Amino acid sequence: MKKLEDVRVAIDQVDEELVRLFEKRMKLAEDVVEIKTAENLPIFDGARENKVVERAVDRLGNPGNAGAIRSFYHLLMTMSKARQREIMYNQNEDWLTRLIENAEPLKQGPVSVIYQGVSGAYSYEAALQTFGDRAKLENVETFENVFQKIQKGEADYGVLPIENSIMGGVAEVQDHLRSYGCFIVGETEVSVHHCLAAVPGTRLEDVREVRSHPQALGQCREYLQARHMQGITWINTAVAGESVAGEDRKDLAALCSSTAANLHGLEILEENVEDKKNNRTRFIIVAAQMAFQEDFNKTSILFSTEHRSGALLEALSAFAVEDLNLLRIESRPTGHKGWDYWFFVDFAGNVKHPAVQKAMRQLAAEASYFEVLGCYKAAGK
Ligand SMILES: O=C(O)C(=O)C[C@]1(C(=O)O)C=C[C@@H](O)C=C1
């Protein structure tokens, strides 16, 4: 058998080569963005990305590496796009004008929409609420799958929960939003009302076991306790409803949305059983390209600052000076070094508005990293 040290020496040699090639590729990305800036082309090119990935797969000697090489290339191109954005937005004097020029209006007519979960889930409701019957809906298992499909150009829009009025921000979605370089192009709010649903003919007083997602069970804890019902953890609310429909039991129910109950032919025994009313979840609509319309009234940005006292205050002061209303600020660890953060900020205003442009230009000049995550129509406005 080979000695570990010897193999590691060989790995080090390969890595040396990889680093050299990586830097060569990143340098080419810098050349690309120069051309794209001059010719006013968007950074993202889904068709080209698919070609790059599939060519790499074709070149493999071992087809077992296909999944790994796909992930590797998507990551490589994410980094390539991040570098290109950095250059296009931060160094080009006219980055803001270009950003708006490259943005597209929202698509009208039929669109393909991807969401996480199953039919009847709250994300599904958010998708229907936003796109109605013009959407061809597709569901995937994880939040990350949504970003992957959008990034590969396999769907027009993705629908993802970003924050709940009781539970707060959805950290995973926030993190992927940054790393996948997708844009927020819309948002919608869904009232989260749980109902107790069971197979038709079930009597409320006979229900002993209730299946649902832990969040929903938690949001209805007092209701369940008062009725001596035992909560059973299920993967999500809609699948809980589906599972109850598949069993002919009169002591079993699910906590799910009324949409999920109706979808699975369940009878709603009681509606709005959540302990706290006004339970709402805000969903964002993401796309591979930035969107722009004159009627958009909310902007989301991402930035990081130097690690020194007053840096955040200074960074945000431009918004106070320009009288812009900050709607939300969320921080997430950068993961690069300890206690370093990305700041996600939402504020009221359209990216074309002079005050917004002034504040963003100032912040971009001061921040150690700055990116526009999107401009869109605020929910309910
Ligand atoms: O070829 C381009 O247009 C690039 O910008 C380069 C690149 C890449 O890194 O390969 C990056 C982004 C595009 O979406 C496609 C490909």
UniProtKB/TrEMBL annotation:
<keyword id="KW-0413">Isomerase</keyword>
<feature type="domain" description="Prephenate dehydratase">
    <location>
        <begin position="112"/>
        <end position="288"/>
    </location>
</feature>
<dbReference type="GO" id="GO:0004664">
    <property type="term" value="F:prephenate dehydratase activity"/>
</dbReference>
<dbReference type="InterPro" id="IPR036979">
    <property type="entry name" value="CM_dom_sf"/>
</dbReference>
<comment type="pathway">
    <text>Metabolic intermediate biosynthesis; prephenate biosynthesis; prephenate from chorismate: step 1/1.</text>
</comment>
<feature type="coiled-coil region">
    <location>
        <begin position="4"/>
        <end position="31"/>
    </location>
</feature>
<comment type="pathway">
    <text>Amino-acid biosynthesis; L-phenylalanine biosynthesis; phenylpyruvate from prephenate: step 1/1.</text>
</comment>
<keyword id="KW-0057">Aromatic amino acid biosynthesis</keyword>
<feature type="domain" description="Chorismate mutase">
    <location>
        <begin position="1"/>
        <end position="88"/>
    </location>
</feature>
<dbReference type="Pfam" id="PF00800">
    <property type="entry name" value="PDT"/>
</dbReference>
<keyword id="KW-0456">Lyase</keyword>
<dbReference type="InterPro" id="IPR001086">
    <property type="entry name" value="Preph_deHydtase"/>
</dbReference>
<dbReference type="InterPro" id="IPR002701">
    <property type="entry name" value="CM_II_prokaryot"/>
</dbReference>
<dbReference type="InterPro" id="IPR002912">
    <property type="entry name" value="ACT_dom"/>
</dbReference>
<feature type="site" description="Essential for prephenate dehydratase activity">
    <location>
        <position position="281"/>
    </location>
</feature>
<keyword id="KW-0028">Amino-acid biosynthesis</keyword>
<dbReference type="GO" id="GO:0009094">
    <property type="term" value="P:L-phenylalanine biosynthetic process"/>
</dbReference>
<comment type="function">
    <text>Catalyzes the Claisen rearrangement of chorismate to prephenate and the decarboxylation/dehydration of prephenate to phenylpyruvate.</text>
</comment>
<keyword id="KW-0963">Cytoplasm</keyword>
<keyword id="KW-0175">Coiled coil</keyword>
<feature type="domain" description="ACT">
    <location>
        <begin position="300"/>
        <end position="377"/>
    </location>
</feature>
<dbReference type="GO" id="GO:0005737">
    <property type="term" value="C:cytoplasm"/>
</dbReference>
<dbReference type="GO" id="GO:0046417">
    <property type="term" value="P:chorismate metabolic process"/>
</dbReference>
<keyword id="KW-0584">Phenylalanine biosynthesis</keyword>
<dbReference type="InterPro" id="IPR045865">
    <property type="entry name" value="ACT-like_dom_sf"/>
</dbReference>
<dbReference type="GO" id="GO:0004106">
    <property type="term" value="F:chorismate mutase activity"/>
</dbReference>
<dbReference type="InterPro" id="IPR008242">
    <property type="entry name" value="Chor_mutase/pphenate_deHydtase"/>
</dbReference>
<dbReference type="Pfam" id="PF01817">
    <property type="entry name" value="CM_2"/>
</dbReference>
<dbReference type="InterPro" id="IPR036263">
    <property type="entry name" value="Chorismate_II_sf"/>
</dbReference>
<protein>
    <recommendedName>
        <fullName>Bifunctional chorismate mutase/prephenate dehydratase</fullName>
        <ecNumber>4.2.1.51</ecNumber>
    </recommendedName>
</protein>
<keyword id="KW-0511">Multifunctional enzyme</keyword>
